[in-house]
Amino acid sequence: MQFFRKYKNVLSALSINAIESFDFVLYGYYATLIAPVFFSDQNPKAAQLKALLIFAAMFIIKPLGGLIFGHIGDKHGRKKSLITSVLVISIPTFFIGILPGYEQLGSLAPTLLVILLSIQGLGAAAANSGAAIFLNEHAKPNTKAFFSGLLFSAAFMGAAMASLLGIFFVSHYPDWGWRAVFVIGSILGLLILVLRNTIEETPLFQNSYKNKAIKTKIPFREILKKHKRNLMATMGIAAGANLPFYIILIYINTILSSDLHISSANILMYNVFILLFWSISLPFFGHLGDKVGERRLMLTASVLLIIVPIPLMKWFVSEKTVFSLMTGRVILSLVAMGVVAPCSAYLARLFPVHERQTGVGFGYFTGSAIFGGTAPSICLYCTQAFNIELFPAIYLAFGGAISLLSLWVSKPQDTTY
Prior knowledge:
- By secondary structure, the chain is an all-alpha fold.
- Helix content is 83%, strand content 0%.
- It has 21 helices and no strands.
- The protein has helices at 2-6, 8-29, 31-38, 44-76, 78-98, 102-105, 108-138, 144-172, 177-191, 203-209, 212-215, 219-226, 228-259, 264-292, 294-307, 309-319, 322-340, 343-348, 356-373, 375-385, 391-409.
- The longest helix has 33 residues, at 44-76.
């Protein structure tokens, strides 16, 4: 109990981010299982593509979530924004789990699926950016990158938990097992609400809120006036942080399923391995960011993200084995962690306290929508339509280049907080 009281703010933020990740990644993981339930296509790859396009649509709504809840966080407090976001992501997750399929509802089924996933996307953006800013402002100056890595680690742990539950339910109940995981995820999210009375508002927000001149200003309007450059840079940095994850964790599942004919249970097991690898490694990369500098580590990783993917993809195309694919995933993961781990700590530096959650939430999730959520469907379409097997690697290198340029032109507002 004493440990919880001492670290209640940290543990609360990590728990909320883990549950947000658990709920949000479910659709991406089970897209290959969900596709035949909600789409009538006889061609499995066509159904998969439609399912991944809906996954991309989830991301289009996330910038709006970052904007709305960022405004709430900057005007009314990080705590209020964070707690509200849990409801917005958990309730639609439950209804997705019990939603009838195409056979029962016809075209209404995928329509309702898109609506529920869109609402879920609003909540996911709010929970992720809210937890990032909340934890960052509670952390000490020389530990911010470490806690940034720890926050992403919690997210990957939540995603791993989703996979582990999926392995059990999908193996034993292949027809409806994925639905049980959605319902469990929603219940876990609602249980997090018991933390709402234990967490404390961040001191930085409380001090900022005392300024009456700041209280009357609209955060997003102020960002557009004074910090457009950093807003654009935040979108670009999101490319380096999101593209690797959604290609490594989501797109590669389609290769394992369609090309290597791996079972759904084994695909989930491979995902668990990668997710746990990320979860263990990210805090160490965050600590490295505190030692060498967040920006320096992210710049180095962005350069490697340009160089490494194409040779790795060439190796996989020549081998076409599970070993080469999994080895490539591990190597790409190590490269990407240098961008991901210190990301939220660095982005927080780009905006003043009273505009921070709006700037980070809207900027990051706009970049995530453009480069992250669309990545699996773009890679699947281009490899099929243009027969370019190296396209995923080329796209990863493109993301690294955008991240590198964005880091180079960004200008931190505060290097001492």
